Amino acid sequence: MEASGGSPKQLTHGPADNVIPSWSRDGSSIYFASKRSGRFEISRIPAHGGTAQQITRNGGYVAFDSADGKTLYYTLTHAGAEGLYAKPLPNGEERQLLKDEIAGRGFAVFSDGVYYLYSRDGHRPPEDTSMAPFQNSAEGYDIRFYNFDSGRSKILGGIEGALHNGLAVSPDQKTFLFTKIIDSGSDLMLIENFR
Which of these, 95, 7, 25, lies nearest to 64 by C-alpha position? Predict the structure, then answer.
């Protein structure tokens, strides 16, 4: 849908699961995970519609491109247990950039490196429930930064308790935004005379 309003336009078609969209840096296209090939792979489609193009060949789930739009960074699965991968666009070789687990869609790419969430006790969310929150990590989560120049990660801070999916970082790289679950539970309700 246009920012100014109007009717929504469907971009993807067909029976495959198409999930986890993210804008390209230049706003011209949208990356998303698609199960068209039988497993999740990253595809890209023009933002105003058109033909989707499969980008990855060895799996892909959450994806963001680099600041210059020349490299795609992505996880292979929702859990992110396999680490972070990088692929020069359009047809470069896919390679593992980080072996650290990327906790539930939690990474943000900048020109100098990648910020990411890491579970200190290795807890991972279930593979088949992409909307499920993380359980409480006994050890908590680190916010880490992987520096492209040094090829090393450092811990910037910690988070205690249960988290949900995602991590955002302000353009000046001074503020982090994440979803923390303070209280969760369910109510049992009785509906009388239900038909």
Answer: 25
pLDDT along the chain (195 residues), means of 10: 90 90 96 94 95 95 96 90 94 95 92 94 48 54 96 94 88 92 75 77
Helix, coil or strand: residue 193: coil
The CATH superfamily assigned to 18-181 is TolB, C-terminal domain (2.120.10.30)
Angle at 165 between CA 164 and CA 166, to 5 degrees: 125
Tell me the pTM. 0.84
Rounded to whole angstroms, the Cα distance separating 60 from 22 reads: 13
Rounded-to-integer distance, Cα 7 and Cα 102, Å: 36
Alpha helices in 80-180 (DSSP H): none
Is the CA virtual torsion 176, 67, 150, 60 positive or negative? positive
Nearest to 25 by CA among 89, 120, 121, 103: 89
- φ, ψ of residue 140 to 5 degrees: the values are 90, -170
Please, what is the end-to-end C-alpha distance for the chain in angstroms? Answer: 39
Amino acid at 60: G
User: For the chain, what are the domain ranges?
Assistant: 18-181
Q: How far apart are CA 43 and CA 82, in angstroms?
A: 19
